[in-house]
Amino acid sequence: MPGFLLHASATVICSHGGQAMPTMLNPRVKVSSQPIVTQPTMYTVAGCPFVTGGNPLPCVTASWVTAAVRVKAGGVPVLMQDSQAITVPNGVPLNVLVTQFRVKGM
Length: 106
Fold this sequence. Notes:
The protein is mainly β and 106 residues long. Helices cover 0% and strands 43% of the residues. The protein has one domain (3-98).
């Protein structure tokens, strides 16, 4: 199913509400004047409020396990709104809340 491509300004959070940001962007491909993000890119998570047993255990990073099947940039699959990611150390998903709405991929 087609989904919108992720770009630098997409709003992505962990399941606990921490803000996730890409560590790398693809500067050669842009949508809505923003560089896109490809699958090998790790995301860092800031402000995760998760606490277990009274001790903070925030999400720190996330890696993407699914990406576009047909759309690639520089030979690498691009990330889309419905791509799936898992955080470390908690193993919860990232949620894409807002992205551009002009370019779709599969």
